Amino acid sequence: MNAYNRFMSLIDLFYPKFCLNCSFPGAYICPRCQKYLIMPKRPQCYVCKKNSLNSLTHQLCLRKLDIDGVCYLFYYNGLLKKIIKNFKYRLATKVGYELFNVIKPNVINRLSFYKDLNGNVVLQPIPLSKDKYNERGFNQALLIAKFMNRYLNLAIADFLTRVKETKPQANMKTKLDRFRNLKGAFGIKPGTDTRQIKKLRIILIDDVITTGSTVKEAAKVLKKNGALKVYVLALAGG
Ligand SMILES: [Zn+2]
Ligand SMILES: [Zn+2]
After folding, report:
1. What gap in Å lies between CA 114 and CA 47, rounded to an integer?
2. Which of 6, 42, 48, 167 places its Cα 20 to 30 Å from the Cα of 130?
3. 25 Cα to the center of ligand 1, angstroms
């Protein structure tokens, strides 16, 4: 047990667990609130919201958003907001572990498409800005990639870097502001042999997908460098 874990156990002793949603003691996601972990009802195309097997983007819809499929496990509601907030701070691994224990098999089934992808497939967590990384000490998208990897068991790539400091998307008022804020946000990490990216199927991992503008920028960079397919897998969305 390292110093950090010892410190965390000490914290547990003084600060017992409370439900993130209703404050009931004993667990971060209490049995009563597990019903708020709501899986999207049917797989759909992220662009037109119509039915689509495995949430793949329709051929025609790819013109609007060049991402081959977008899958998220839960609706981005109050509970998920709190879970994701905690993924960014000190409870990250504990909340993740608890979520792993209460997740239902039908949710896991949504991941089987990604598990069964043939060929070269990697997970690529959306990178944080340097400032945020220094402030937090870890990237929550990498933690979520590790969480997904309990089912997927894929390699985790590190091809991307933030080349532009962006403002929080939540502060952006219009769609155009959001677009400008993120335009050119990502680049290939210096020292990466881009031949590795060619013909690769890349699954971008993020905590939450709302407008899709972040992953869109990341996907653009990867496709420009020869990625065959780019998918998105997020913990929450909507
Ligand atoms: Zn609760
Ligand atoms: Zn569509």
Report:
1. 19
2. 6
3. 8
